[in-house]
Design brief:
By secondary structure, the protein is mainly α. The protein has one domain (38-192). 72% of the residues lie in helices and 0% in strands. It is globular, with a radius of gyration of 23 Å.
């Protein structure tokens, strides 16, 4: 007995799964900076290099520490100190790239049903509010580094300001990225609407 044909317009589950898989693969393999200017590509590549270097350092230190602890009973006592200190830099690189490439989770779903003019205004407000939030974070990051940046780490005696400055530098860079996106969106919408009447 043969299985019934699916209802008209219905997708077979395996076909839907294949389509989702292909869309995901296509998205992952597509150049995230396609269509970006030369300077935008270089900025993003610099952030990527910093992020990859930080992530590679974290992975190597965790692996070496685990191997030392369980294989030869000689852990690297300062490894965890560096790993914890590098996490803010890794997070800020990721957030910065997500904002610049517009891959950050946003409220687009909720505002997509609004009229075009209202949607533009709300989008601009969200971008400016997001930038203000990160400026606020950068301000308190500056205060924190000013107060405690001269403290040194327990084992390597490195200034903690090298690591905690991620909250200042990273938050400032993210705020700037939000503002640049807002300005570009505003200019695009303005040019798309064309010159207003006399």
């Amino acid at each position: 007995m043969s299985e019934p044909d699916p209802a008209p317009g219905a997708q077979a589950p395996e076909n839907l799964a294949d389509q989702v898989g292909q869309a995901t693969q296509s998205m992952e393999l597509t150049d995230p900076d396609a269509g970006a200017s030369w300077i935008d590509r270089r900025i993003n590549q610099l952030a990527e290099v910093i992020g990859v270097a930080v992530l590679a350092t974290v992975v190597v230190l965790i692996f070496a520490n685990a191997a030392g602890r369980y294989l030869v009973a000689a852990p690297i006592i300062w490894a965890e100190e560096i790993v914890i200190a590098l996490i803010p830099w890794l997070a800020m690189c990721g957030v910065f790239l997500s904002v610049r490439r517009r891959q950050l989770i946003s409220l687009d779903y909720f505002i997509s049903g609004l009229p075009a003019r209202t949607r533009s205004a709300v989008g601009l407000f969200i971008a400016v509010l997001s930038a203000a939030t990160f400026v606020y974070l950068a301000y308190y990051g500056f205060q924190y580094v000013s107060l405690f940046g001269a403290d040194v780490t327990t084992y390597l005696q490195l200034p903690t300001g090298w690591f905690t400055s991620a909250m200042l530098i990273g938050a400032g860079a993210v705020a700037l990225a939000f503002l640049v996106n807002a300005i570009r969106d505003f200019r695009t919408r303005r040019s798309a609407s064309g010159p207003s009447g006399p």
